[in-house]
Amino acid sequence: MKKDKKGNLTEQAVIEGLKKHFPEPWIDLKFSNPFQLLVATILAAQATDKKVNEVTAVFFKKYPDPESIAKAPLEQIENDIKQINFYRRKAKLLKECCEAIVKEFNGKIPDNIDDLTKLPGVGRKTASVILVNAFNKPAIVVDTHVKRVSQRLGITESNNPDRIEKDLAEFFSKENWIFISKAMVLFGRYICKAKNPKCKECALLDICPYDKKNL
Known about the structure:
Layout: H1 11-21, H2 34-43, H3 49-62, H4 66-71, H5 74-80, H6 87-105, H7 113-116, H8 124-134, H9 144-153, H10 161-171, H11 177-190
InterPro entries: DNA_glycosylase, Endonuclease-III-like_CS2, Endouclease-III_FeS-bd_BS, HhH-GPD_domain, HhH_base_excis_C, HhH_motif, Nth
Family: Belongs to the Nth/MutY family.
GO biological process, one term: base-excision repair, AP site formation
């Protein structure tokens, strides 16, 4: 693992390190199409992926498409996701989002960030998750894990998601955006944890400038 001549991180070094841990990165949310990932991602805010997967395993059988959610009574949707944190707000967002998809996009999930972020409940992070994982299109996902990893590696000094996204876009070439958006989430979740990061196991240890390593 090497830095450049100035002792800085290089894109290649970070990519190589991430690939040692996650050569074929995945997303923990279970889905079969863009619609299902959209629903799962909205439900996943401040909830565990495990709990979301438990709920959606039943939910998707009852609601196979945006039309089915758009037509359903709000109280029914609430009842079907009540195991999820903030289920009332999320049920409202799901219904409004699916109503917009039916009305504005003929029931199909948009495949670009501008249209996705027009939907109720869909910010840049959710839109990027959908683009990367459902459409295999380059985007940069900035969640709490990516934020932490980016800061510890010194790729960004910002706490602002938009600024972090720009810093990552400058550091990584576009051809690597899909990979890093998947791998950095997993790396932050399972290796570079908020508490007790697994620094001894980390393939990026030699190039990481983080001054509070868990060694």
